[in-house]
UniProtKB/TrEMBL annotation:
<keyword id="KW-0645">Protease</keyword>
<dbReference type="InterPro" id="IPR006433">
    <property type="entry name" value="Prohead_protease"/>
</dbReference>
<keyword id="KW-1188">Viral release from host cell</keyword>
<dbReference type="GO" id="GO:0008233">
    <property type="term" value="F:peptidase activity"/>
</dbReference>
<dbReference type="Pfam" id="PF04586">
    <property type="entry name" value="Peptidase_S78"/>
</dbReference>
<dbReference type="GO" id="GO:0006508">
    <property type="term" value="P:proteolysis"/>
</dbReference>
<feature type="domain" description="Prohead serine protease">
    <location>
        <begin position="22"/>
        <end position="162"/>
    </location>
</feature>
<keyword id="KW-0378">Hydrolase</keyword>
<dbReference type="InterPro" id="IPR054613">
    <property type="entry name" value="Peptidase_S78_dom"/>
</dbReference>
<protein>
    <recommendedName>
        <fullName>Prohead serine protease domain-containing protein</fullName>
    </recommendedName>
</protein>
């Protein structure tokens, strides 16, 4: 059984809908419904609804962090909502924050191209294929990250993907999988 307060992270696929405007405004999908990730999880439509409603009722927003580090907020997610495709977010990198300026430069150069969500599982079921269907999640944050879990999980793609890029992503996914296994013990 999941720990009641265990924070999990899910590297999400953005797809082609992500855009960065004026070096600071970011919008796109932070999570797509119905896709199996390398951890065997599938986020179901409606999984974020209760969390987003609770945040709005409390007058709070989803946090924008750098690499899941709670000591490094880099911007503000002004909007977050579910649609037929997934969890859509729109926000601003803060240029008054050094890491926010760095993130904008790294995204523009194509060095950073992933998003990842930090959440707590509220409700999930297992399938006969060993997948975990995530039906209710408490969303804590959406981070800009270097290595998304899936090779196709990108903020913005510039040019072709090199073999080294794919190898580094696969290595990062292996490390993330090992970290998750070690923290379950």
């Amino acid at each position: 059984m999941e720990s009641e307060y265990e924070l999990e992270r899910k590297f999400a696929r953005f797809g082609d809908g992500l855009s960065v405007a004026d070096g600071a405004v970011i919008e796109g999908y932070a999570s797509l419904f119905g896709q199996v990730d390398q951890g065997g999880d599938v986020v179901q439509k409606g999984a974020y609804a209760a969390s987003l409603k609770a945040l709005a009722a409390a007058g709070r927003q989803v946090k924008m962090l750098w690499q899941h580090d709670p000591a490094q907020p880099i911007g503000i997610w002004d909007e977050a909502h579910e649609d037929e495709t997934g969890l859509w977010v729109k926000g601003r990198l803060l240029d008054d924050v050094a890491k926010g300026r760095e993130a904008a430069s790294l995204i523009e150069a194509g060095a950073i191209d992933g998003l990842s969500i930090g959440y707590r599982t509220v409700k999930a079921t297992k399938t006969d294929r060993g997948q975990r269907l995530l039906t209710e999640l408490e969303l804590w944050e959406v981070s800009l990250v270097t290595f998304p879990m899936l090779p196709s999980a990108r903020v913005a793609a510039k040019g072709e993907t090199s073999e080294n890029d794919v190898a580094l992503r696969e290595l990062a996914a292996a490390f993330e999988g090992a970290r998750r296994e070690l923290t379950r013990e």
